[in-house]
Amino acid sequence: MERVPAGPRRLHRSRWRGWLLAPGVALLLGLVVWGALSGPDRRPSERPFGAGLPPIATERGAPPLPEPDPLAIARRAEIAAEEARLAALRAARLELERQVAALEQETAARRSLPPPQEPGLRPVRVVVHHRANSPAASGAAAELAQSLRGGSGFEVLGVRSAAFVPSTPVVRYFHEEDQAAAARLAARLGRGWAIQDFRAYLPQPAPQTLEVWLAAE
Question: How many whole angstroms separate alpha carbon 167 and alpha carbon 182?
Answer without folding.
Answer: 19
